[in-house]
Design a protein that fits this description.
This protein has helices spanning 10-15, 42-47, 56-62, 76-90, 93-97, 139-153, 176-179, 193-207, 211-227, 231-250, 266-276, 329-346, 361-370, 406-437; strands spanning 22-27, 33-39, 67-72, 105-110, 118-122, 130-136, 285-294, 298-307, 310-311, 317-320, 354-358, 377-382, 387-392, 395-399. The protein is of the alpha+beta class.
Length: 438
């Protein structure tokens, strides 16, 4: 942090701030910190406080600001963690006033079973048996940070209770997060209790800022695993070390979960879907399918994948329809679904929990015919009236949803993304056809 200085106005100081991530400190005329915040770009975020269209409560705070200090951080994640620690330690006046009586979000490391999970919770969630870190001012920011940290430490975020002495875990099939190397799958006994606990302790050290000691410990654990001929474990620890060093050098770069553009909280939509469909827990994996036609001739299919309500671009797939002559949406859907689930069976892949088809009763029946007995919640969403249908035991039923519900908006997002991806493939093929004809 820089020295206290009133020779330059706060607005002028904001305009000269770096564009790097960090934490900013708003000070009053007596040099007291009245507000702490974090930013992806310090200059852009702090300068935004000096625009005319401010909320009255924020304007009242800004009117008391006489100086601004900043602390640059290597990444947005570091800024988020530093902000939480500093707010907890200093309790600035306006960090309390501006939260509108809502409880702050906390990062929870659960303690109710043998393999701790990492969740978000509220300060007021007193029934949850968990170690809590925070508070964090933005729930979505914390969820984004957890996704980044999960790439490094591969902890579980599910709701499954796991016991070390449960032999049935050996027969459990892990979810997609294990397949994409984002979870070590303690649910399926793919990691020992001791190794998983060591990963959680590494996460804890990272969160509390003990970065140097953490890296020294990872080097020690890597060498010990190699000496014991546990080469796979040594490689996992090595990858953690490299990921931490890479994060510090390059900042946060989205890798598998790309940005959410839906206006609602995906978790809210998933909770509502689970409740409406009587699912035991909110679904983590959703796939959406759409069909597009190339000038009324060649037909293509698209498949998009979502994890926790957010697009998973590495899971997107394209299909050129091979067995259908002419325009036949039903047959094309049946082919796409059949090919998709046949490949999952052949590769021992993980099926999505929810499969959404663009269309109505005819399209969902065609998709059901292509499943080949796979167990999946099969839905379709018809345009115009935005009616959601479900396939259950050979029959189609309507799922009644309010037009403004988070569940419907999430399903529309998946459907529209599948349509966009199908149209993109359609345009690629059309461009290729034009080039070949020239």
């Amino acid at each position: 942090m820089g020295p206290y200085n009133t020779a330059v106005t706060p607005r002028e100081k904001a305009a000269a701030l770096p564009e790097s991530p960090g934490v900013y400190f708003m000070k009053d005329a007596r040099g007291r910190v009245v507000y702490i915040g974090k930013a992806k770009s310090l200059r852009a975020r702090v300068s935004s406080y000096f625009h005319a269209d401010l909320d009255p409560k924020v304007r009242a705070m800004v009117e008391q600001v006489a100086d601004i200090d900043v602390m640059e951080t290597p990444t947005e994640v570091d800024a988020l963690l530093a902000e939480a620690r500093l707010i907890k330690d200093t309790q600035p006046k306006y960090n309390v006033k501006l939260k509108d009586d809502k409880s702050f979000t906390m990062l929870a490391i659960t303690r109710f079973d043998d393999f701790p999970k990492v969740w978000t919770c509220r300060e007021t969630d007193e029934d949850l048996d968990a170690e809590r870190l925070g508070p964090f001012t933005g729930a979505q920011d914390l969820r984004d940070a957890i996704k980044v940290l999960q790439r490094i430490f591969k902890f579980a975020t599910c709701r499954i209770e796991m016991r070390e002495n449960d032999d049935k875990r050996r027969f459990f099939r892990p979810c997609l997060l294990h397949a994409i190397a984002r979870c070590t799958a303690p649910c399926a006994a793919r990691i020992s209790k001791e190794d998983y606990a060591a990963d959680i302790e590494s996460l804890r050290r990272f969160l509390t800022g003990d970065r140097t000691a953490l890296k020294e410990d990872l080097v020690r654990r890597m060498k010990a695993a190699a000496k014991s001929l546990e080469y796979e474990r040594a490689a996992d620890v090595r990858d953690q070390l490299r990921a931490i060093e890479s994060l510090e050098k390059r900042g946060v770069e989205p890798e598998y979960l790309e940005g959410d553009i839906t206006p609602m909280d995906p978790a809210e939509g998933l909770e509502e879907i689970a409740r409406l469909l009587a699912m035991p827990a909110r679904p983590r994996t959703i796939e959406g399918v759409d069909i597009a036609h190339l000038q009324g001739g060649e037909t293509v299919g698209s498949l998009v994948a979502f994890i926790d309500g957010i697009p998973f671009k590495s899971g997107y797939r394209r299909f050129r329809i091979k067995t259908v002559a002419g325009v036949d949406d039903f047959a094309s859907i049946r082919e796409v679904i059949s090919r998709r689930f046949r490949r999952l069976r052949e590769e021992d892949g993980v099926a999505p929990e929810v499969l959404l088809i663009d269309g109505g009763p005819g399209q969902i029946a065609a998709a059901a015919a292509g499943l080949g007995g796979a167990s999946v919640v099969l839905l379709s969403l018809a345009k115009r009236e935005e009616t959601l249908y479900r396939w259950t035991d050979g029959t189609v039923g309507e799922v009644r949803l309010d037009k403004s519900s988070a569940a419907l908006r999430l399903m529309m997002y998946v459907r529209d993304e599948a349509h966009r991806f199908a149209q993109h493939y359609h345009h690629l093929l059309r461009r290729k056809a034009v080039m070949e004809s020239e």
